[in-house]
Amino acid sequence: MSTPLDSKMPKKIGRIGELAYNLWWSWNADARQLFRQLDKILWRDTRHNPVQMLVELSAAQLEKAANDASFCQLYDTVMQQMDEMLDIKNGWFYKNYPQHIDDQIAYFSFEFGLHNTLPIYSGGLGILSGDHTKESGDLGLPLVGIGFMYPQGYFRQVLPSHGWQEAQYIPLDFDKAPILPATDSDGNEVRAKVFIDGHHVHAKVWHVRVGLTDLYLMDTDVDDNQPWERDLSARLYYGGHDMRLKQEMLLGLGGVQVLRKLGYDPTVWHMNEGHSAFLLIELLREKMRGGMSFADAKEEVRKHTVFTTHTPVPAGHDAFPFHMMEKYFGAIWEEFGISREAFMELGANDDKHEGRNFNMTVLPLNMAGQANGVSKLHGAVSRDMWQHVYPNISSVDDVPIGHVTNGIHVPTWVARELGDLFTKYVAPDWLERHDEPEMWQKVNDIPDGELWEAHLELKRKLMTYLRTRERGKWMNGLHDANQVMTGGMLFDPEALTIGFARRFATYKRANLIFRDLDRLKAMLLNAQRPVQLLFAGKAHPADDPGKHFIQEIYNFSKANHMGGRVAIIEDYEMHLARFMKQGVDVWLNTPRRPREASGTSGMKASLNGVPNLSILDGWWVEGYNEKNGWVIGDDTEYGDDLGAQDWADATSMYNHMESSIIPTYYDRGADGIPHGWVKIMKEAISSNAAEFSMRRMIKNYTEQLYLNAM
Ligand SMILES: *Cc1c(COP(=O)(O)O)cnc(C)c1O
Q1: Residue 157 included in any domain
Q2: Is residue 170 part of a domain?
Q3: Ligand 1 atom closest to Cα of 581?
Q4: Cβ of 408 below 6 Å from ligand 1
Q5: Does the beta carbon of 5 lie inside 6 Å of ligand 1?
Q6: Tens-digit pLDDT profile for residues 395-429
Q7: Ligand 1 atom closest to residue 598's alpha carbon, by position in its atom list
Q8: Does residue 93 belong to any structural domain of this protein?
Q9: Which residue among 488, 509, 560, 570 is least enclosed by CB atoms within 10 Å?
Q10: What's the CA gap between 669 and 676, in Å, rounded?
């Protein structure tokens, strides 16, 4: 693949631009080392952005690297690995299902969390899509991704000294991001064109290389569009109903078109969440234009479609009033030769608050051949929640919504320091075999002292990262003393550190741990065995209750009486996420059961030997085993008595902290090592690493869903 950087590169390292433009480097340890070696300071200051580095480095600096024998040796190793990775025949999929190698899978998602240089995700859903894309390539699946390029991304969070979150939108510098215009086989730039409300909206298409997988992102910021159309893809999760509907038309209808123009002919269409469900309408239209009847076309579309639902929270399911649907889809049902009612029936749903409307979960439940939730519990909750969509099914167990429990992309989320230990004690090829549960028993062979030292190193790295950030903001006049203080300046690298970071959706109850302040303070301020709490996360800009939670925690973090034992870090994203999940001691999760469909941050923590203290919700129902962490509360559901639920959960959490977590953490052997704690760390890794890997998940999707659709 050629890139704009190629002409600048010395011949000996001529393909380094190709590497920088393939995000594969971000989960290959040697490739990361190569860029680090090129310029350590710039590597840190660009927050690991090799495209920007190569743009900014002078010809002389690059020439120097090309004349450095050790650099060139590493370069050759990395290139060889990249070429092996790019050959689909080396992958698991081809080895097991060679007859399906030409069956393409189209994967649609509203957000993709791939790397901090591409801020086009908001939270867990996006990270999941990103991890799905990465692992699909690692396993050699013939998968292609479709989504949006949001030039202003999701917002950057600023926490002023009053603690009320502010949102900043910073336009992406396209020349320093790992994306290039997508071209067809003739080298022409690809465009999509969707008829919306009387005229055509145009989108250009960007191409992102994610290992073996291609990802295409639509962007409406083009000259042919009216100003309001140019803004359609400007930001993620921004604007009202009307904007959302138009975006979803563009993703579903336009996305199919883009794939066709690029020459794809997928046999599997996977809708990751309902945002892309209009692709079903576009596929129907294609088939009917090819001469099929409506009924036959529907049957044909059903065979090849997969839908994943991601949340039991009602606000997480988009729905549009019929009159809006009428405005945008009138021409389509006429083309189909069906009535308005027949069209609306495809997605009709009775909403408790808004009456009957067109629901973007009901549409794919009605039309897609296969549907699933994202954990065992969430599968059951979804069958119950959507039983009404299937009037002919009387038993909730028969509702055709299964589950595939989420996972995480292990090479992205594992700390290098731990990876080195796994290589030494678990298996030299542990990374290739990381979804084999038995292999992980060997974690017990790691000497306690080595695992503990690696963890302390990661904890120091986290603390240094926080201080470096704050020092920079302080020196540039961006933060006052209060903000520096709330950013963790009084944090103690020796103290037991509990981490909490995710979107500040209110059901996640970030402030639950402050419920009984006296009891909490007795732990935080204990002179011998102190505890400190580290928070991060954004609230959606329209979510004032979520912003109140942030402000409440912010106020605790700067209150004198809390002793600097609470901190909240601005602008949570993937870069900070890695530092936090690898560097704290305990990972806290307090959703209001059963609203957390899966949750994935706890899996990332567990993989890195950070045990979970969590409500029995989402993945933790499957992940907890009595030796690898703690369960807050039990499986009681409290209905509308939210106060009682909060109090019971908080009490249970404090009990664990006082009776188990704090004593075990601080109980050191004569060698200074907390052997009891290290045992829990080892159990967290060995019991969860394989089971909650994205590799296990992609194999499940392939064998339970994709192969059926092929
Ligand atoms: C993993 C991750 C999430 C998801 O966190 P949950 O605890 O599952 O809600 C959100 N944001 C970032 C940056 C992540 O890395």
Answers
A1: no
A2: no
A3: 15
A4: no
A5: no
A6: 999 999 999 999 999 999 999 999 999 999 999 99
A7: 8
A8: no
A9: 560
A10: 9
